Amino acid sequence: MVTNIDAYDLNPARFTGTRNFYIDLPHICPCCSTAYSSNPSFSGFFKNTLGTMHLYCLFFCPACEDAFLVTYDFIDDIDYDECVGNIAVQYPFPNNTTSFSDKLSELSPKFVEIYHQAEQAENAGLSELCGIGYRKALEFLVKDYAIAQHPDKESEIISSFLGKCIHEYIDNPKIEALATASTWIGNDETHYVRKHENYNVQDLKRFLTTTIAYVECELNLAEAFDFLNGSQ
Distance (Å, rounded) from C-alpha 18 to C-alpha 9? Predict the structure, then answer.
């Protein structure tokens, strides 16, 4: 949820009073993992000599009666009064990770391992590394799923580029579209030049999450068909 706050200037050399910021509130307390949506108890900003703006917000969680700090970053050379600050890092680092079904874990245990490591990197504020991890996790999920669907093509799937693997060995058009979109954004996380400036690692996670849902749907459908055929 986006909200509007006032923050104090933390620069003692040139205190300018307060100014207004829009921020995306944290959804979960990193201390106890309880849902959270309250405004910060205190906020301060600092603009360094390079012109980069940092905003620091102290939140208090009534559930666990503990406090946590969130640092927000803003794009340089923009109107901070209109731009929404991006959460850069939280202290303490959140330790929650996504739970995956037994079916998905059996299909691609390496995917689960890599995805959890990418989440830990993101929780630690390593924003330049977590996208690379999510992109790698995607490749393991797609290839393991493709091998399960085409076991006779395992060697070709393993050695193929991800885009070719998706196009040739993913039969479900919805999974193909989602995996392709995830790949394009994921590639931007690994390359020097971004081709899709309007998409970021959060969009990658969004497409990847939907890809996972469709893969799990296919796995459950296969089990249902096997169950029905075995019952006849």
Answer: 6
Distances (CA, A) of 109 to 42, 113, 141, 148: 42, 6, 9, 13
Residue 32 tokens read as: 């106890």
Task: Identify residue 148 by its one-letter amino acid code.
Answer: A
Could you tell me the pLDDT band of residue 43, with boundaries at 50, 70 and 90?
Answer: very high
User: What tokens does 20 get?
Assistant: 């207004």
Q: Which residues contact 173 (CB under 8 A, 6 or more apart)?
A: none
Residues in the chain: 232
- Is-contact 85 73, C-beta < 8 A? yes
CA distance 201 to 13: 36
Nearest to 6 by CA among 55, 48, 49, 53: 55
CB 30 within 8 A of CB 90: yes
pLDDT digits (tens, 9 = 90+) for 193-220: 999 989 999 999 999 999 999 999 999 9
Helices assigned H by DSSP within 150-192 = 154-159, 162-169, 173-190
Q: What is the pLDDT of residues 112-169, one digit of tens each?
A: 999 999 999 988 878 899 999 999 999 999 999 999 999 999 999 999 999 999 999 9
Handedness of CA 103, 105, 109, 110 (dihedral sign): positive
State how far the alpha carbon of 142 is from the alpha carbons of 91, 103, 109, 134, 167, in Å: 34, 14, 12, 12, 11
Note the pLDDT tens digit of each residue in 2-18.
888 999 999 888 877 88
